Amino acid sequence: MEFKLIDLIGNTPLVKAKSLNPNPAVQLYFKLEGQNPGGSVKDRAALNMITSGLERGTFSKSTPLIEATSGNTGIALAMIASLFDLQIELVMPENATKERVQTMRAYGAKVTLTSAEKGIEGARDYAESKVSGEGFVMVNQFGNDDNWKAHYKSTGPEIWRDTGGKVTHFVSSMGTTGTIMGTSTFLKEQNSNIQIIGVQPTDESSIPGIRKWPKEYLPKIFNPAKIDRILEVSEEEAIAMTKRLAVEEGIFAGMSSGGATSAAVRLANELKEGIIVSIICDRGDRYLSSDLFE
């Protein structure tokens, strides 16, 4: 059978926790999104945003695209843009890991680095200025319904299928919120009793890929009614659990996955029974130049 690269996006493995699950009455599963060809869950959203935008005529192959990103969405967009011969500029804070910047450039994208002090909000402001002043079209992961619909069409159905419809709790870190919005929408349609748990950092913590957005930057695709509960994790918890994932489960992932796993383990401790599915957002190799694994 002949495959195209985009055929390999999705249908990622669901693996059972070997040692991190503290409660034998609960089943804890990890969905390994690092197995996508671009290395993260963002491949799903990038593919749907690009293909749907082209189909609708929101942009064409001659349209310059731009997007602000903290990393994984940018890598995914760079990969998908290369497959469709699109030109794209990706905007990131200058403290992004070297691996992320180099990967985007390897796919042929232009990468612009903005002030680390202003964070992803500053990158978003820069991208907005290019849209209003220079005729760029923003992919707009924070406000594009094709982001969450990617997970409605793929992530949610896969979890439902692979648990035989028995999933009781879904845990996901929240950045753009596309993963949790789309997966929640699908799973709640199958069984409204499924609990959706979002993960955010504590106020003093900085965890790449997880955000507690200021009101003016809150993603437009976010609907709080689709989440049953929010658990907060500290930076220290996320780092420690990321390392434990590698050592105890053989899962090499980034800090946002450690944050989600911390929340999932905490949840497992509370339950009398259940089947928890937690998203492992990406692979750990794009964090090697940081101090995450030191």
From TrEMBL:
SUPFAM superfamilies (UniProt xref): Tryptophan synthase beta subunit-like PLP-dependent enzymes
Domain Tryptophan synthase beta chain-like PALP: 7-282
Gene3D superfamilies: 3.40.50.1100
Gene Ontology biological-process annotations: cysteine biosynthetic process from serine
Binding site residues for pyridoxal 5'-phosphate: N72, G175, T176, T177, G178, T179, S256
Pathway connected to this protein: Amino-acid biosynthesis; L-cysteine biosynthesis; L-cysteine from L-serine: step 2/2
Residue ranges the record marks as coiled coil: none
Record-listed N6-(pyridoxal phosphate)lysine modification sites: K42
Catalytic activity: O-acetyl-L-serine + hydrogen sulfide = L-cysteine + acetate
Pfam families for this protein: PALP
Superkingdom of source: Bacteria
Protein EC: 2.5.1.47
Molecular function GO labels: cysteine synthase activity
InterPro entries recorded: Cys_synth (IPR005856), Cys_Synth/Cystath_Beta-Synth (IPR050214), CysM (IPR005858), P-phosphate_BS (IPR001216), TrpB-like_PALP (IPR001926), TrpB-like_PALP_sf (IPR036052)
Cofactors: pyridoxal 5'-phosphate
UniProt keyword list: Amino-acid biosynthesis, Cysteine biosynthesis, Pyridoxal phosphate, Transferase
Similarity section: Belongs to the cysteine synthase/cystathionine beta-synthase family.
Protein's UniProt name: Cysteine synthase
Organism: Muriicola soli
